């Protein structure tokens, strides 16, 4: 049986390794961040998380019955992810950024490019491209979220999940989500849809790397 998930991992592994090897990413996972930089990162993550469900909704609205199972998966996933931007706001408050301050924060050009690409790709490229965004975010959370949040707690002397609730929770949640996403990706058989997902993974890894690199 064809296994698109394995093909996707193989085709996009270079993009993942570029993220992992970026000096800022490598140093942050190994040594943590100052509280000032962590605040900036959380501020950027807030905008990415806020747009996650609207992007998925835009894609789902364009998915035909040919990919009905993928559309249903997006509906379920949006329900599970609903309100997670509030977790980011809670973490920001824990490190000294109140909600009024966050309301005045504007996303960086790197975040705007990431979010804008995913809206565009869902509308103009192929709606299944949204699975590439999901794949990248699940990989980041499942593989790097745990070690990064542990280092942040240690270097910033945060107690329990305080200040890292978003990262910590997704490190465990997204290990399960990745297994579900693998099964959904393996449903793809149309070349255009698969090509759009591969392209999306490469672009999302590149843009996420830019977001981290600028923090």
| CATH architecture assignment | Up-down Bundle
Structural class: mainly alpha
- What oligomeric state is this? single chain
- Low-confidence regions: none
CATH level-1 class: Mainly Alpha
CATH topology, what is it called?
Answer: Heme Oxygenase, Chain A
Helix content: over 70%
Beta-strand residue percentage = under 5%
Largest sheet: none
Integer tally of domains: 1
Helical element count?
Answer: 10
End-to-end distance: 43 Å
Q: How many distinct beta strands? A: 0
Task: Quote the average pLDDT.
Answer: 91
> Helix and strand succession?
HHHHHHHHHH
Shape, principal axes of CA atoms: globular
Radius of gyration: 17 Å
CATH superfamily: Heme oxygenase-like
Description:
Helix content is 80%, strand content 0%. By secondary structure, the chain is mainly alpha-helical. The protein has one domain (4-214): Heme Oxygenase, Chain A. Helix 8 packs parallel to helix 10 (191-214). The longest helix has 27 residues, at 130-156. The radius of gyration is 17 Å and the shape is globular. The model has no long low-confidence stretch (mean pLDDT 91).
